[in-house]
Write a structure and sequence with these properties.
There is one protein chain. The protein has about 400 residues and is α/β, with parallel strands linked by helices. The protein is built from 14 helices and 20 strands. It has helices at about 20-30, 40-45, 50-55, 75-80, 90-100, 105-115, 125-130, 130-145, 170-180, 215-225, 255-265, 310-315, 330-340, 385-404, and strands at about 5-10, 35-40, 60, 85-90, 120, 145-150, 150-155, 160-165, 190-195, 200-205, 205-210, 230-235, 250, 270-275, 280, 300-305, 320-330, 345-350, 365-370, 375-380. The strands form 5 sheets. Strands 13-12-9-14-17-18-19-20 form an 8-stranded mixed beta sheet, sandwiched between helices. Strands 3-2-1-4-5-6 form a 6-stranded parallel beta sheet, sandwiched between helices. α1 (about 20-30) runs parallel beside α3, α4 (about 75-80) crosses α6 (about 105-115) and α10 packs across α14. The longest helix is centred in the last third of the chain and has 21 residues, at about 385-404. The chain is elongated. The two termini are about 35 Å apart. Bound molecules: ligand PMT. Ligand PMT binds near residues 213, 273 and 309.
Amino acid sequence: MRLTGKTVVLGVTGGIAAYKSVEVVSRLRKKGAAVRVIMTENAAKLVAPLTFETLSNGPVSVDTFAREGAFDVQHITLAKAADVFVVAPATANILAKMAWGLADDMLSTTLLATKAPVLVAPAMNTGMWTAEATQRNCEILRERGVRFVGPEGGFLACGDEGAGRMSEPAAIVEAIEAILCPKRDLEGLRVMVTAGATRERLDPVRFLSNDSSGKMGFAIAEAAKERGAETLLVCGVTTAEAPADVPLVRVESTQELYEAVTGRAGDMDVIIQAAAPADYRFAQRFPEKLKKQSGAPLTLELVENPDIAAAVGKNKRSSQTLVGFAAETEHLRENAKAKLKKKNLDLIVANDVTQPGAGFNVDTNIAALITEEGIEERPLQSKRALAEDILDKVVELRKRAKAE
Ligand code: PMT
């Protein structure tokens, strides 16, 4: 009864997958959770509210103006009661309403009022899911911290095949449990995460850099912190918002990142290097803005920067776990495997940064987790979900190393 004492408010919208949410309620109740169900009018046409009432052992709200008790403003009561607010299935319509703050029925009104973490399980036709409007709405929701489970690919009720199928009830309940009972398996560990791009200055107004936003490293640091680790972020230049509760050291150049990381590496149990340091810097840094030379070509010399991951790898203690990333545009696995070895890493996260939805400055990534033992592929998923996978792998590697 892992969820005893927790209240899940479940919003059911008008998708054919609504019948699967009946099983979500049943599974949650078996784990001890109290479940309050809100249905949209369309959902109530697909599955009788009585089914949800019977399984949740409570009233089902559909109408904003129905009154539960004499002075009970129901949508506010439910918004406050939730330890987690789940929308399953979530249609394109409710995602759009959530993204833009529309509140025109019981469910959307309650969603707007809630302060609880929100999880959505989208379900719709592939065309609707991939539509630019829906994807933009999802981006807005993700940026706001709404979590997603699915959708999965497969055969859809409309006869199409593709992404849009609601995740299975077991996966939805697992995602709910991850929110309500977060793992604390990194407690007692010190984890350093690097994030963002470095800048190599040429003169006071120009620099050499790359597109790293910091999103990947921030997602890892946030997840590590939530899982109980004493977490430190060392980051270069970033455009994403850093997690508020993780201490952060700012640097600009690769040399500064090198000093910040190597100076602290000895105190760390786990080091995860998601930053994109510039491999080269200008041989000469000009104190004043370089002037144009009336059409003559300008040749600038670059010199190699230190390799931070390799330096950390060289001084690795046997109790440490070192994770690097490989940002590749070709020969992903081969290049990443070579870096794993050369930098003495325990794990390398290989991402092909040319793939849509992967790499720089997006909320998602596609990765292969490569260790000496083998390769595990991870499909397109949020950077936060990939962060959890990386940390799961770190925990597994540390357990194995301890046992040996
Ligand atoms: O920040 P985002 O917008 O979310 O983008 C995420 C990301 C694409 C930056 C991230 O997923 C990623 O791939 N990070 C590694 C980028 C990189 O520098 O890859 P690389 O293959 O050049 O380097 C391999 C490893 O060595 C990396 O762990 C890197 O941090 C490290 N390195 C690289 C150069 C250098 N001089 N010193 C290093 O330690």
